[in-house]
């Protein structure tokens, strides 16, 4: 029985190793200096790179942070510091259900909210879509780490007559800062690879992005476009793009581990 | 539950709160309201975006198998079928495998192996859907086409599911890739459920003379049954909404075929493929209605899963997060 279960565990882990093996094997050969510095070449022409897509992904992540983190963190603060226990149960439930909404649905919603009124696909729309996906994730982790801050900290500060908003921001949130940052990084790692919500918000772009109100390139989008194209050269670049994207996500996850290790939080 | 600041709740400080205090509280409340409001907003946007299609096709939208943009005829059945079948295949593969892995990790694996193994499964969850799709197109599909599918047709070909031509891109390939993608969450939740089985259960079974396997089967699995069911339902919720990887391997053809080797199409895939190409209003509205169906399905399934897991967690809501 032990052997059977062990084999199941091995089988479960096998896809990861297989994916990583091919990412390195196929991706590394197509990865060169041009990949990081050049614009994509038109279809059929060899060479070119994904520079705008790399910058675009970072831009989108920055925008997503601006949208997702304040709302998520404040929501978590409400749950941990103000909320009523019974109402909190429902709010957490709502956040968990929201967390299960398929990411493509967020793309459609942001399309009607931003793309249609502004009459253009844009970096803003892509960033908002990713930010909305981050909100429930950030809120739940913030909520959890704030609950770990000892009650006596708050009581001590209260006894000194410090206003409550200051207690929360300066004492409670500062104590839990590592945990909050960890939560944000986890959420970023999750949305960094999202493609579906970007299909009709950020749309993609083969040139440098001039303004945030224009369509913007993103690594996952470019990987998707290149993967389903009929050109071998693009396939090679799709692997290289996937390798870079995976490395970005691994770095984020590594940062999470480093942040989470020290201190008790998380 | 660590209560929210219970001391301050009744302290005189609250009544005499100054404006910074009050505005901070309002900001926090606003954020929570935004989160609750988001669900309503999504539902409303999808509904208002699909109104034309709802008016034109009514209920027949859900039962019609015709998807013909040229003549503005739209029906959702092939996509609902594709979504349900690919998710079902994913569950059939991922749930036993996930539970077995969780059992191995909690009951059998040597202590030293556990943490690294858990990390590996967590990393599997970090791989983006589009990368699985890429891998699916260039590695998984050729292998399935040349080996697994041939073998299935040779050995199980008497079943209608394993007959017909093999293209590689297929419903089965879609299901397999979704299975890989939901495996981490099924494993993680199952592991949490199994860990919460009280020691006493096991000891009692041992005391009755049960072997290790019998203890696992009767005391652990029997006790954890409902929780594991919840984990499976949560996996289903994820499977229904999977988009990119499925789009890249399922073949994208709106047909209903008994053979799992035949290409299929899912709700999420058709939206991903055709949304920016929708030429007429009815077309776009139909895609929105597909989105609405997908949203309703995932909300229902996820809510059910959360309720199931929450009831088990007992010690207050939110112990088992998704």
For this entry, give a set of tags:
heterodimer; A: 266 residues; mainly alpha; 12 helices; 76% helix; B: 322 residues; two-stranded antiparallel sheet; 1% strand
Which SSEs are present, and which pair or pack?
The complex is a heterodimer of chains A (266) and B (322).
Chain A (H helix, E strand, L loop, with lengths): L1 H29 L2 H5 L13 H32 L2 H15 L3 H16 L4 H25 L3 H9 L4 H12 L1 H16 L3 H4 L19 H9 L4 H30 L5
Chain B lengths: L5 H4 L2 H4 L3 H31 L1 H7 L2 H4 L3 E2 L4 E2 L2 H32 L2 H16 L2 H28 L14 H25 L3 H9 L4 H30 L2 H6 L17 H8 L6 H33 L9
Antiparallel strand pairs in B: 1-2
Helix pairs in contact in B: 3-14, 4-14, 6-9, 6-11, 7-9, 9-11, 10-11, 11-14, 13-14
Subcellular location (chain B): Cell membrane
GO molecular function (chain B): phosphate transmembrane transporter activity
Family (chain B): Belongs to the binding-protein-dependent transport system permease family. CysTW subfamily.
Describe this protein's structure:
The complex is a heterodimer of chains A (266) and B (322). Chain A is built from 12 helices and no strands. Chain A is 76% helix and 0% strand. Chain A is mainly alpha-helical. The two termini of chain A are 34 Å apart. With 322 residues, chain B is an all-alpha fold. Chain B is built from 14 helices and 2 strands. In chain B, helix 3 (19-49) crosses helix 14 (281-313), helix 6 (77-108) packs antiparallel against helix 11 and helix 9 packs across helix 11 (212-241). Classes of the chains: A mainly alpha (266), B mainly alpha (322). Chains A and B meet through helix 1, helix 3, helix 4, helix 5 and helix 6 of A and helix 3, helix 6, helix 7, helix 8 and helix 9 of B.
